[in-house]
């Protein structure tokens, strides 16, 4: 808001903290790059001491069992079970409730025994049973379910896995039985590694991801602290958004289960969709707050609010144990975020000129989220689950760009405030800018407005103020004016201007509002003043105001004030405590019906 010099100091604190957020975001991006570097490359299906994360699909054949009735005894019979060579397109079957059997020969190199580990690619796989068959007999059975606690896993690792000590000079035919118990997305990309090599790899992976989540947590705490110190909701909401974002990736990586809920297997199945919903709800909440959609476009704000309500219902339904509907809805929730850049652009056109970095941030994240959903839901793209890692990387880039977007918003506010630091342009009593400011500086403030952007003006006049002076004295009258100025200030967005225009008269200049929005704001203001009486030790005085609203055409402030004055006069004449709008096209005044 353009009224107190104290804001400058607060804004400087905002900027210092925001730069700290930027540094942390950069650190997180660096972590993610490291993660990409350590994700090992593939060698051969024959396990050697160098085997690390080798994908098995190239050497495997596949059998898809839609009935889910087959057992290992059925599938080892080649006549009963027609396996076919596996192709890359088999890796991501999309949403499926089938049972999948993968079959491949496995041995160790030369005469060395090897302890190997086979693991899934995604954390949300329901089961992955491994059978080792020799001479038509099952000689080893490893049953792995996500319902088991982590202590029951072969290796205490974030993904379903089997380890086996493979003797030298022994060849098995390995069968992997995998799928989802209820239709959902899955990946059949199963990898194999030498255990010693893998443990070294997973330690590095853990360290990098630990740094990643540590940086997430720090970023979140700083934002929350910033919100608390500066009494600014936007940072608290940003912090909440970062929390759900970190949880989303923590769940998808399987780290949340490994480190936070290692004993709570069944929780895994039930939590993914809830996290998807929570993430979408918080992303929309941050956008509503950052873009100030409530003031800029109440209709858009209402739509976003309803979308949040639908997603909240999704969470409730999921908590009641219903599976299919919330599953699809949760994917829609993630995909709906792809529209946030459009929302950002719409608000940018409507006056949120600070939203450039917000739009860029969401374009990047939206593309990768869209590709991840496409990879998870269908087989249309070749890259398997790689878009998921790209989206995790994009999430970091996004948190960096959103911090930049917050800085941009605060900076714009800062530059506007610095224009009003001269005392001569401030009203001493209320600390609002004064009439001189409006006459001299308003053109400067709005110079960066585009031609198609429109402004509106609201003239606000206290009702029966003379009576207040007469009844309680001039000193109380002064305090009541300060109270009224504060009440109006509370209802003002940072990019708007509020000034004391005369004795008990105030002017509010709003940026890029359509007529319906201005009417709503005027009505809300009228109502707000009435419900916030002045209080001191002795008196409680209920106030009311009359308001005259009009658009500012051709940047002509003088004419706009004349029009608004006509509307205000009308509001006074029909009984006060009313808002009226002057329509320049018809030169008529309309009473704004209460929408509250
Ligand atoms: N205490 C105090 N009173 C002020 C100040 N500036 C103007 N006023 C008083 O505000 C009152 C305005 O009175 P009027 O213009 O008659 O309007 P009103 O009593 O509010 O009646 P309506 O506007 O018709 O509802 C006058 O009594 C002024 O003396 C100020 O800075 N402090």
UniProtKB/TrEMBL annotation:
Its transmembrane ranges are 15-38, 207-230, 242-261, 273-291, 303-322, 328-348, 357-377, 389-407
Please give one Gene Ontology molecular function term for this protein: diguanylate cyclase activity
Record SUPFAM superfamilies: Nucleotide cyclase (SSF55073)
Supply one GO CC term from the record.
Answer: plasma membrane
Q: Supply the Pfam families for this chain.
A: 7TMR-DISM_7TM, 7TMR-DISMED2, GGDEF
Q: What is its EC number?
A: 2.7.7.65
Q: What GO terms in the biological process aspect are recorded for it? A: cell adhesion involved in single-species biofilm formation; negative regulation of bacterial-type flagellum-dependent cell motility
User: Which keywords, in A-to-Z order, does the entry hold?
Assistant: Membrane, Transmembrane, Transmembrane helix
Query: Which residue range or ranges hold the GGDEF domain?
Result: 453-584
* Catalytic reactions of this protein: 2 GTP = 3',3'-c-di-GMP + 2 diphosphate
Protein name in the entry = diguanylate cyclase
């Amino acid at each position: 808001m353009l009224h107190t010099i104290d804001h400058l100091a607060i804004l400087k604190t905002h900027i210092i903290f925001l730069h700290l957020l930027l540094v942390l975001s950069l650190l997180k991006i660096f972590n993610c790059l490291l993660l990409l570097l350590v994700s090992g490359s593939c060698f051969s299906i024959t396990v050697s001491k160098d085997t690390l994360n080798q994908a098995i699909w190239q050497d495997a054949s596949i059998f898809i069992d839609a009935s889910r009735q087959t057992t290992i005894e059925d599938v080892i019979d080649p006549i009963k079970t027609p396996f076919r060579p596996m192709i890359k397109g088999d890796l991501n079957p999309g949403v499926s409730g089938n049972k999948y059997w993968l079959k491949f020969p496995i041995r160790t190199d030369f005469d060395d025994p090897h302890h190997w580990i086979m693991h899934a690619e995604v954390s949300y796989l329901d089961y992955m049973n491994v059978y080792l068959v020799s001479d038509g007999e099952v000689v080893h059975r490893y049953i792995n379910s996500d319902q088991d606690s982590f202590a029951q896993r072969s290796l205490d690792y974030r993904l379903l896995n089997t380890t086996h000590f493979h003797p030298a000079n022994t060849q098995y035919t390995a069968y992997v039985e995998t799928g989802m118990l209820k239709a959902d997305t899955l990946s059949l990309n199963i990898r194999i590694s030498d255990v010693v090599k893998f443990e070294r790899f997973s330690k590095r992976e853990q360290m990098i991801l630990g740094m990643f989540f540590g940086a997430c947590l720090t970023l979140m705490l700083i934002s929350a602290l910033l919100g608390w110190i500066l009494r600014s909701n936007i940072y608290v909401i940003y912090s909440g958004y970062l929390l759900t974002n970190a949880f989303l990736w923590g769940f998808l990586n399987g780290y949340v289960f490994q480190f936070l809920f290692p004993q709570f297997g069944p929780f895994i199945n039930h939590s993914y969709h809830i996290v998807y919903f929570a993430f979408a709800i918080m992303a929309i909440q941050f956008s509503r707050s950052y873009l100030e959609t409530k003031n800029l476009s109440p209709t858009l704000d209402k739509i976003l609010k309803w979308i949040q309500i639908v997603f909240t219902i999704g969470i409730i339904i999921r908590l009641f144990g219903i599976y299919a509907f919330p599953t699809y809805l949760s994917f829609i929730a993630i995909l709906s975020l792809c529209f946030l850049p459009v929302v950002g652009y719409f608000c940018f056109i409507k006056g949120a000129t600070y939203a450039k970095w917000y739009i860029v941030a969401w374009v990047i994240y939206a593309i990768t989220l869209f590709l991840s959903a496409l990879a998870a839901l269908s087989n249309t793209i070749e890259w398997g689950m790689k878009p998921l890692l790209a989206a995790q990387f994009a999430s970091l880039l996004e948190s960096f760009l959103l911090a930049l977007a917050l800085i941009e918003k605060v900076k714009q506010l800062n530059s506007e405030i610095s224009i009003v630091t001269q005392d001569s342009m401030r009203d001493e009593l209320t600390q609002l800018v004064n009439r001189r400011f409006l006459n001299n500086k308003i053109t400067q403030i709005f110079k960066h407005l585009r031609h198609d952007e429109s402004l509106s003006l609201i003239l606000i006049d206290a009702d029966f103020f003379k009576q207040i002076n007469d009844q309680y004295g001039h000193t109380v009258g002064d305090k009541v004016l300060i109270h009224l100025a504060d009440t109006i200030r509370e209802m003002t967005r940072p990019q708007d201007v509020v000034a004391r225009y005369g004795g008990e008269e105030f002017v509010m200049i709003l940026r890029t509002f359509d007529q319906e929005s201005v009417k709503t704001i005027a009505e809300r203001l009228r109502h707000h003043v009435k419900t916030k009486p002045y209080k001191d030790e002795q008196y409680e005085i209920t106030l009311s105001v009359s308001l005259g609203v009009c658009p500012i055409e051709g940047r002509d402030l003088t004419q706009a004030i004349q029009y608004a004055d006509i509307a205000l006069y009308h509001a006074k004449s029909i009984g006060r405590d009313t808002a009226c709008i002057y329509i320049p096209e018809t030169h008529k005044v309309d009473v704004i019906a209460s929408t509250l």
